[in-house]
Amino acid sequence: MQALDGGQLFQALFIKELLCRLMKYDLRLMLRKELLGVASLAVGKILTTILNDVLKAELEITCSIVNIGTVIIGRVLTDSDFDLANELLHGCTPHKEIDERTWERVQKIFIETCMKNSDVLCLKERYEAWLQSEEDAILLLSVMIQQVNTTYEG
C-alpha cells in the first residue's frame, strides 16, 4: 500500500480502510468468484455429458477426457470462438478421419444444445453478472483513488 502512495502512511491506511469497507459492504462480491468456480464444476459435468451425447449421435465416438466440460466451460460461457476438434484432439479416437466441416457442424450442435440447458444458462447469467460487478468494483476503486489523489495532491 505504501508503495502506491509514495510512502505516506496516512494515505495507505485510508485506502486500506476503504477496501475493507468495500469488502464489508458487499461480501458477496468478494465471494462470487469462488462460488462461480464451484458451480462451474457441476456444469462442467453437464457439458461433458452433452458433448459425449452429441459426439455419439453425430460421429459415433465419445471423449475420454473426464474433465473436458470444465476445460471448455469458459469458452461456452463467453460465447468465444474455439476449435472443438483441437480441444478434443487427445481425448477422442475416431475410427476414421473427420473433415473440418463435420467438426464445425458438431460444434454448432454442441453449442446449441448447451444454450438450451437451464443449468448452463443460469451459470452464464451469473457469470455475466459477476463480470459486471467486477467492472463496477474496479470503476469504484479508480474513482476513490482519484479522489484520494485530488485531496492530497491538489
Helix content: over 70%
Low-confidence stretches: 1-10
Instruction: Tell how many strands the DSSP assignment holds.
Output: 0
User: Assembly state here?
Assistant: single chain
Estimate the global geometry from the Cα principal axes: elongated
The N- and C-terminal alpha carbons lie at a distance of: 20 Å
Radius of gyration: 22 Å
Largest sheet: none
Q: What integer is the average pLDDT?
A: 75
Share of β-strand residues: under 5%
Offer a few descriptive terms:
disordered N terminus, 154 residues, 75% helix, mainly alpha, single chain, 6 helices
Task: Please tell me about this protein's structure.
The protein is mostly helical and 154 residues long. Helices cover 75% and strands 0% of the residues. It is built from six helices and no strands. The chain has helices spanning 9-25, 27-59, 68-77, 84-87, 100-114, 118-153. The protein is elongated and about 70 Å long. Residues 1-10 have low confidence and may be disordered.
Short description:
The chain has 154 residues and is mainly alpha-helical. It is 75% helix and 0% strand.
SSE inventory with pairings:
Blueprint: H1 9-25, H2 27-59, H3 68-77, H4 84-87, H5 100-114, H6 118-153
